[in-house]
Amino acid sequence: MKYLGWWPQPEESVPFGPALEHFVAWMRDERGLTPCTIEQWRYRALKFLCWCSDTDRNLATLQPQDIDAYFVNYGAKRWSRISAGGIAKMLRVFLRHAASTGACSPILAGSIPGNRRYALESLPYALSWEDVRRVVATASSDSEGDIRDRAILLLLAVLGLRRGEVASPRLDQIDLVAGLLPIWRLKRRQPQVHPLVPSVAEALRRYIHEVRPNVSHAEVFIRTQAPRFPIQATALYNIVTRRLRALGYRPLTLALMLCGTRAQRSCSPTG
Length: 271
Known about the structure:
By secondary structure, the chain is mainly alpha-helical. It has ten helices and two strands. It has helices at residues 17-31, 35-54, 64-75, 81-100, 129-137, 144-157, 163-167, 198-211, 235-246, 251-258, and strands at 180-185, 190-195. The radius of gyration is 21 Å and the shape is globular. It starts with 16 loop residues before the first helix and ends in a 13-residue tail after the last helix. Residues 260-271 have low confidence and may be disordered.
């Protein structure tokens, strides 16, 4: 009913909306960040602004001790140390930009310290290659969902792609004959070509030629339920989590590992 426009949706109330949308426009138009990064940083910035609104704090009068309270009262039970470091980095960028427009005090960004990071600290969070094979083996049936998910899991595990890099390729970018997959790299301003090993190439070929729905969208991976839109990068978390949970793994850490952290590269026998 939502898809057909028969279910009225209330407009989302965004606290300090102009500051947030100005930040999004800056990331998109001036920094040239990827849509995936923009979406994630907008989501994190919105969470912070909602917390400010819920606790009767005003962005214009925000003080460093208010930032401390956000991490202590809101984030302590929600984030790992590594996640807290990433959110601190995002907040520094957001508050620095907000200060440049006069939306908040210029001292806020500099009051957020970074947390200590240790070399190779992420390696213990990686799955062993045997465990990765068990996860991939859960997608072995002839159903559309399993055939699609098998191709997705192999791209994550064997090629070490991030979730946004798995969701973004289009049909005209994949060369199954030559076994090549170009992935656009924003910093290099050009594609990086990945060789498709036989197992990955076969999984993609089977999905594209046998079960992929005949839709007008050019993206490779399509939702298995209506509306038949291309999958979003965030949907890969749910795909991996569901299969990890079925095998008895703790899904939160391991799904994040498979869906976009550098630790995933230690899973592959070539990584």
